[in-house]
Specification:
alpha+beta; two-stranded antiparallel ribbon; single chain
């Protein structure tokens, strides 16, 4: 049977079952904090643009990303360092180039939702298909 946690027993509660459910879904404070951090990272337009470019155009190096998102190489590099630190992008070396891609996880799933509203669909050259038909590209 659901009940309000003992630590909250003195609080005024209208529906103890719903309060119990709300407390239960928020019980993993680390996961909630992680989700808030990811949302914060996504909340800045330049970082979001970088992530959307990677999500839809595929793996890109810093200079190509800079052109695509209309930022300087150094600004893109700085943003990528932050995105890597938060586990939102990964890097892999191809000879002398370092290419970045969106990492799997909550960030990628949220980008799919944002893409439905923010991304212009059409034929993507690198992938050779219509992005709308292929999901997220």
């Amino acid at each position: 049977m659901h009940k309000v946690p003992e630590a909250l027993s003195g609080a005024r509660v209208i529906d103890p079952d719903q309060v119990c459910d709300a407390v239960a879904v928020l019980s993993d404070v680390d996961k909630v904090a992680h989700a808030a951090t990811i949302l914060d990272v996504l909340g800045e337009a330049n970082r979001l643009s970088i992530l959307l470019a990677l999500q839809h155009a595929g793996d890109l190096c810093v200079s190509d990303l800079a052109v695509a998102v209309r930022m300087s190489d150094s600004a893109v590099s700085h943003a990528l360092r932050l995105l890597r630190a938060h586990g939102m992008v990964t890097a892999h070396r191809e000879g002398r180039l370092v290419r970045y891609r969106v990492a799997d996880g909550l960030g990628r799933r949220l980008l799919e939702v944002v893409s439905a509203e923010a991304v212009t669909t059409g034929t993507l050259h690198a992938h050779g298909h219509d992005d709308a038909e292929a999901g997220t590209g």
